[in-house]
Amino acid sequence: MSINYARILVFFTSASVLVLEILAGRLMAPYVGVSLETFTGIIGTILAGIALGSAVGGRLADKNEPNKMIGPALMAGGVLSWLSIPIVSFLGPGIGSAVPAIVILALFGFFLPAMVLTTVSPMVAKLRLQSLTETGEVVGGLSAAGTVGALFGTFFTGFVLVSAVPTRPIILAVGLALVVWGIAHTIRLGSGKLPSGGIALSAVLVFSAATVSANPCEFESAYACGRVVTDPDNPNLRFLVLDTLRHGAVDLEDPTHLEFRYINIIGDVIDTLPPGPVDALHLGGGAFSIPRYINATRPGSTHLVLEIDPLLVDVGREQLGLVTGPDLEVRTGDARLALADLPTDGYDLVVGDAFGGLSVPWHLTTTEVIAELDRVLRPGGVYVMNIIDGDRNRFAEAELATFAEHFDFRAAVVPNDWPRKTPANQILIASDHPITPPQVDFEHGVLVEDIDAFSHGGIVLRDDFAPVEQLAANP
Fold first, then answer.
1. What is the distance, to the nearest Å, from the Cα of residue 24 to the centroid of all Cα atoms in its chain?
2. Average pLDDT in the 211-231 region?
């Protein structure tokens, strides 16, 4: 085996493993959500597969002719990559989103392809080692090729593929490339036999299962798997579902209709502002129901919506009644990065409703970002934030403690069965002026009477320490 072919082979198999690792997060997201726990479970599982694959591949290379095993390993890795799709589609809907469920789903879906593909590297190393005098050069060169391949797989998938092509076709293409390469290697370079008819038929069946497996995504972006669902009892009511959660709802005929409990509370807070139009800043667009509500109840208002996902803006325009213009501007990109360019004292209202899975992105919770929101709010302006917490309520306590670093007045609205073990939406409110208590329907929630006692003991979240997902209650 030539050195160039060996390096290309190790490069490609390593890249394939990292492509699968990144796509695992997208494939699993509709069932377990997107969180630090999700990616921790996936990364740990893939690393375990790499470790075992290196050990098994080295042992097999010492006991057998490596050239005969490389082709079958490539073909098996491709077929197992295909198999991850029906496995996740079958197990995902009922598995839950707790940490053990995440690890189990990652284990069944992606451990074996990572392990099998990693066996190729020690087999190639065995073929290339001719004498002990060149051990360092051979092992080091192949290790470098594998690392560069992993880097390529990571960057190309994360920065290019995920935003350009749906997840499942990428996995099918990677698996197909591996199978074809395995067949070609067996024919041209090895003396091994091609798979039997039964094995080939099994591979075809796996590929077929991967192509027809239920796909919960109507659309897929770099950030979420989503769909728009029409209410069966009201054709004008549409729900935006991203991964595991309903992120918004709009009534195309009645913009004042707020479907969800927490959205109603945000509307109640907005209703406490002085009469007339407002200038509003929105961190997260979602279904864009709040801008539509404000425009219906306060004509002449202006909005700047900071939405990270450009595809959601297109979906909003096409299916959710979003109409952008001079009075409703949407800027795509990370909201945190946009704050520094916003004018001081430029807004009467800031609405924080940005989520990644069940959690607010941590970098939108810290004292540094709250200082920026205080800066852009006019005197008497209000910041209203949607969060999900429960049980010990440590994230809510921490966020309110962080508010207190910059705002003199705080309030919170919690579910009417508070305290509760399970997490639920809570609405946090902050201002530099006394807050007018919102008139909240009891079915939607209750205003916390003693905000100091409610937030007692909360840590201040900072850019260098904001363990939001660890503080928030688990579902």
1. 11
2. 89
Q: What DSSP character marks residue 230?
A: E
CA 240 to chain centre: 16
User: Do 302 and 178 share a structural domain?
Assistant: no
> Which residue segment(s) compose the domain that 407 sits in?
225-471
Q: Which amino acid does the sequence have at 362?
A: W
Mean pLDDT of 53-65: 92
- Evaluate if residue 44 carries a pLDDT over 90: yes
Contact 79, 206 (CB under 8 A): yes
Note whether 77 and 16 are within 8 A (CB): yes
Which residues are paired to 303 by β-bridges?
Answer: 280, 328
Mean pLDDT (the chain) is 93
CATH of the domain at 94: 1.20.1250.20
Higher per-residue pLDDT: 316 or 196: 316
Is the pLDDT assigned to residue 97 strictly greater than 90?
no
With b for 16 or more beta-carbon neighbours within 10 A and e for fewer, the 7-38 pattern comes to: bebbbbbbbbbbbbbbbbbbbbbbbbbbbebb
Residue 51 shares a structural domain with residue 74: yes
C-alpha–C-alpha distance, residues 289 and 292, integer Å: 5
